[in-house]
Amino acid sequence: MEPKLISELRLKCPVCGKETLIARDYLYEAENVGKLILSNWTCENCNYVFKDVKPYETAEPKKLEFKVEEESDLNVIVYRSPFASLYIPELGIEVYPQNASQGLISTVEGVLEDILEYLGTLCDNDNCKDIYDAKDGKIPFTLILEDPSGTSFIKSEKVKITQLLSLSQY
């Protein structure tokens, strides 16, 4: 199914302040995930761009575990919903959702590239060598997503999916 335009608005741009932001939201049905809202907002004046992916529906909370053991595993598609926490224990990586978190569709390698980009200059002087090695397929690791919305996915038959306990179950 092609994305279906569900909303198109002209808004005030948060960067330049002019009424030149074209905000388009689309409804997209993704296999194994369900309906997603794809947002693509662009300012015609200053070229500010905002893109986001959010679940339209929610499912049962779940935990996904994917062992990256060979180089081909780096090409597996990952969707991390805006509500999901991401962990890579072997690399000491923990990413928690924030108020303005956006959904992310990428590959496992792309997730590592985003983490390296976020860390920026903290990765100078070989501080992030293990992340670079993981991204290059030199060391195995486990990618874990914990998603209370239940909409995240890792597109592989190797992924282990378990029910995520809600706070009320503790």
Shape by Cα distribution: globular
**In DSSP terms, counting alpha (H) and pi (I) runs of 4 or more, how many helices?**
2
CATH superfamily of the largest domain: ZPR1, A/B domain
| Spatial strand arrangement across the major sheet | 8-7-10-5-12
The CATH class of the largest domain, by name, is: Mainly Beta
* Major sheet attributes: 5 strands, antiparallel
Please report which band the strand proportion falls in: under 5%, 5-15%, 15-25%, 25-35%, 35-45% or over 45%: 35-45%
Structural class: mainly beta
Query: How many domains?
Result: 2
Domain Zinc finger ZPR1-type: 11-156
Keywords: Metal-binding, Zinc, Zinc-finger
Pfam family, one: jr-ZPR1
Protein name: Zinc finger ZPR1-type domain-containing protein
List its traits:
mainly beta; N-terminal domain of TfIIb; Jelly Rolls; 2 domains; 5-stranded antiparallel sheet; 2 helices; Zinc finger ZPR1-type domain-containing protein; metal-binding
